Amino acid sequence: MKGGIFVLSGAGLSAESGLKTFRAEDGLWEDHPVEDVATPEAFARDPELVQRFYNMRREQAAKAEPNPAHRALARLQAEHDAPVYLVTQNVDDLLERGGAREVIHMHGALKDALCATCGHRWAAPMVMDIKDPCPTCGTPATRPDIVWFGEIPYHMDTIQEALEDSDLFVSIGTSGVVYPAAGFSQMARSLGIRTMELNLAASGGRFDEVREGLASVVVPDWVA
Ligand SMILES: CC(C)NC(=O)[C@H](Cc1c[nH]c2ccccc12)NC(=O)[C@H](CCCC/N=C(/NCCC(=O)O)S[C@H]1O[C@H](COP(=O)(O)OP(=O)(O)OC[C@H]2O[C@@H](n3cnc4c(N)ncnc43)[C@H](O)[C@@H]2O)[C@@H](O)[C@H]1O)NC(=O)OCc1ccccc1
């Protein structure tokens, strides 16, 4: 028994903290077609528009508070007698503000800025401007440290090792549409790992157990 628990989370985990999910009728992608704001092409075409989109997201995330699901996962990570890998597609820091010690942000984080020229990373100002010079190479090529569509997600090796070190895979608040994250449950099954889904409604993916309901209810219930 390896004992590790692999928790993959998505926008549904932060929905009750007031952060829009992506695909709901009033989803983020509704009023900002993804190809206009979350692709390198969009950034090359209209960097101001992309910066405004992520400045808005950064402001919303700063105003949001962790909910009982974030805190329950932080508690599980602190109390479980084996590693609890909190892998998230979310770019907000509500798991950390909920007390989580270590979070793997596979799609980046709103709190970081990235120099598109030299790759230097630093803490993002609340309002980021394309003209902000990189503190290392000085070029004005500042972008949000976010993984856009067509870009390779972060920490894929760490994620693979975490999966191989786990006995249980739990998917929370994700529709399972975006790859490679959407393929992790299948990878877990092929490793013989037990799989669970905690989601408002079953996403339709194959899991050994599905518990439907609000994350703020089903996650603390499961952790308890
Ligand atoms: C649209 C999709 C088909 N396209 C892709 O998957 C693409 C292309 C692709 C790659 N492989 C493929 C294979 C097949 C088809 C397509 C592809 N993938 C990529 O481009 C990725 C890069 C993808 C990352 C893009 N960046 C994001 N985010 C950062 C930006 C930003 O945030 O602005 S993705 C973004 O959208 C996704 C949104 O999904 P969810 O989080 O699940 O949110 P959603 O709204 O959909 O669902 C919410 C769920 O919660 C539930 N819910 C709601 N409220 C609650 C509640 N209260 N409680 C509980 N549950 C709740 C709902 O019922 C629902 O089920 C998240 O991943 C999120 O991070 N890069 C890549 O593949 O590089 C090469 C590669 C390949 C292999 C290995 C290495 C590299």
TrEMBL record:
The places in or outside the cell where this protein is found are: Cytoplasm
- Kindly report, in one word, the top-level EC class recorded for this enzyme: transferase
On whether Transferase is a keyword of this UniProt record, the answer is yes
Active-site residues, record numbering mapped to chain: 107
Q: What is its EC number?
A: 2.3.1.286
Q: Which cofactor does it need?
A: Zn(2+)
Positions contributing to NAD(+) binding:
10-29, 89-92, 173-175, 215
Q: Name a Pfam family for this protein.
A: SIR2
Q: So what does this thing catalyse?
A: N(6)-acetyl-L-lysyl-[protein] + NAD(+) + H2O = 2''-O-acetyl-ADP-D-ribose + nicotinamide + L-lysyl-[protein]; N(6)-succinyl-L-lysyl-[protein] + NAD(+) + H2O = 2''-O-succinyl-ADP-D-ribose + nicotinamide + L-lysyl-[protein]
Q: Which GO terms describe its molecular function?
A: histone deacetylase activity, NAD-dependent; NAD+ binding; protein-malonyllysine demalonylase activity; protein-succinyllysine desuccinylase activity; zinc ion binding
Q: Which InterPro entries match?
A: DHS-like_NAD/FAD-binding_dom, NAD-dep_sirtuin_deacylases, Sirtuin, Sirtuin_cat_small_dom_sf, Sirtuin_class_III, Ssirtuin_cat_dom
Query: In which residues is substrate bound?
Result: 54, 57
How many cofactors are bound and how?
A: Binds 1 zinc ion per subunit.
Please indicate which superkingdom the organism of origin belongs to.
Answer: Bacteria
Q: Which GO terms describe its cellular component?
A: cytoplasm
Task: Tell me where in this chain the Deacetylase sirtuin-type domain is found.
Answer: 1-224
- Secretion signal, residue range per the UniProt entry: none
**Its principal location?**
cytoplasm
Annotated residues that bind Zn(2+) are located at: 115, 118, 134, 137
Keywords of the record, alphabetical order, are:
Cytoplasm, Metal-binding, NAD, Transferase, Zinc
Please list the coiled coil stretches. Answer: none
Q: What does this protein do?
A: NAD-dependent lysine deacetylase and desuccinylase that specifically removes acetyl and succinyl groups on target proteins. Modulates the activities of several proteins which are inactive in their acylated form.
**UniProt comment concerning the protein's domains:** 2 residues (Tyr-54 and Arg-57) present in a large hydrophobic pocket are probably involved in substrate specificity. They are important for desuccinylation activity, but dispensable for deacetylation activity.
The family annotation for this protein states:
Belongs to the sirtuin family. Class III subfamily.
> By what name is this protein known?
NAD-dependent protein deacylase
Q: Which gene encodes it?
A: cobB
